[in-house]
Amino acid sequence: MSALLCPEKKTIKLLYLRLTDSAPLIVAKELGYFQEYGLKVQLQKETSWATLRDKLIARKADAAAMLAPMPLTLEQALPNCHERLLSGLILSCNGNAITLSAELFERLQNYCEGDSQSDIALALKRYLHDNKYPPTVRLATVYPFSSHSLQLRYWLRSADIDPDRDIKLVVLPPEQMLENLHSGVIDGYCVGEPWNSLAAHKGSGVVIAACNTLLPAMPEKVLTVTESWHQANPATHLALRAALLKACSWLAARTNRAEAAKLLSLGQYLNLPEELIQRSLNDQILYHRDREILANPGWHLFAHIDNDCGRPTQEKARQLLEMYSDLGSSTLRAAEAYRPDLYRQTVDFLLAKK
Description:
It is built from 15 helices and 13 strands. The protein has helices at 23-30, 33-36, 49-57, 74-77, 102-108, 117-130, 147-157, 177-182, 195-202, 227-232, 234-252, 257-264, 274-281, 314-322, 340-353; strands at residues 11-17, 40-46, 63-67, 85-94, 96-101, 138-141, 168-171, 188-192, 205-210, 219-226, 284-285, 294-295, 300-302. Strands 2-1-3-10-4-13 form a 6-stranded mixed sheet, with helices on both faces. It starts with 10 loop residues before the first strand and ends with a helix.
């Protein structure tokens, strides 16, 4: 460890959800990157994004891998919260897909003129016209202010479907999506991997759109801490960002992704088949259980010291915020939650160590 980096707090708790793009945290833990920078990190799984958010704000954890819009929209989610969130590192981009139940997909075949994502959206529009009120289709997303909500709404609006009137939108934790799809509680969802691939593999669902083909390179997960924690622990925060950016850069090399899938599949992490995890990490997608696996370039993008993916600029923040048409202009000040200066500090630190 560099003599210039002396973490104020060496033992920290880092929160995450069971998703393929939690890979940087697991890689940093298993390959010793946290330890290299003087940290002893406990990775703690949470079930829902709201629970993860609340634990971070309540100081029951030090940091979290969080949905990219969450630090920007804390005021809308929790109007009475006096804490602020910030991020100095975008961990990943993309990684989501839209999946419909096998039953709904079968019904839509009577309305389909093709099998592209736009054809299926138009088929859904025709189906909803014949089954108007009350809304007969329930689609789930993982959090109101999420890339998933933006991507699902974008896909629906591409067929002139009003997400707030024509269907019923609900929020569910990612790992509860498949069970609710299988039981008929919901008719589809937008969620991160591996829950789309798993639905197609089991035959419970059909993947109809990989979200990187809808809104490419959208920031997905960010390393998040509270502003007060950062002020009290700037060196610890730098060590954490450095370890995770190193893990992200390792993941950016495609040759490392088979090993990453093996780590993710372990019982203490995702506890799911290695083959399924490796498929999406390798940018391959199974849309339907009875069809062939296809290439989906760029499904998982991770930050790298030599590219711009990990830089949390205020321009990126504003682009996300502007997609929420119901947020007022004053909310654009929330873009300050993205801290490019902290990212630059991390890159400079890593380059100095080379």
